[in-house]
Amino acid sequence: MRLLPALSLALLSLTVFSCSTKCGDPEPALPPCFSGVVVGDACLDGILIEVDAAHPIGKPAGSYGTNVIAAVNVADFASLNQVGQRVYFQYRNDPAQQSPNRVCTANTVPLPVPHLLLNNLASSACAHGTAGSR
Questions:
Q1: What does the pLDDT look like over 79-103, one tens digit per residue?
Q2: Do 90 and 31 form a contact (C-beta atoms < 8 A)?
Q3: CB under 8 Å, gap of 24 or more: what pairs does 10-16 form?
Q4: Who contacts 84 (Cβ-Cβ below 8 Å, separation ≥6)?
Q5: Can you tell me the distance from the alpha carbon of 9 to that of 75, in angstroms, rounded to the nearest whole number?
Q6: Measured between alpha carbons, how far is 54 from 90 in angstroms, rounded to an integer?
Q7: What is the 3-state secondary structure (H, E, C) of 92-128?
Q8: C-alpha span between 75 and 98 (Å, rounded)
Q9: How do the residues of the chain divide into helix, strand and coil, expressed in percent and rounded to 5?
Q10: What's the predicted TM-score (pTM) here?
């Protein structure tokens, strides 16, 4: 008869231990992966991308589209800067870098779209999940 209370205590201890290793802090969320198509390049803005409609992070920009962002880190694009190229990326908004680092001689004004720093830029989906997963 004494075996039953001892067995119950052992089972309860095992359950608590198991939960403490699995039910603890959740794993940190991975940053979302977005996708879109390169639609142009504007000297004062950077590479213009029409982001997929499922992820409304951009703004309308005339003939460029309705969900457009400007990627200010132009040098990171290498060969991915061709109009029509589908790109996958993560981003951050850096208030200290709102324009590409290049000389512009044309008398233009920046487009009223988000100016972002893209990272993990690629021609295929981000490694950790589907495009735009949050």
A1: 899 999 999 999 999 999 999 988 9
A2: yes
A3: none
A4: 37, 38
A5: 63
A6: 15
A7: ECCCCCCCCCCCCCCCCCCCCCCEEEEEEEECCCCCC
A8: 15
A9: 25, 30, 50
A10: 0.74
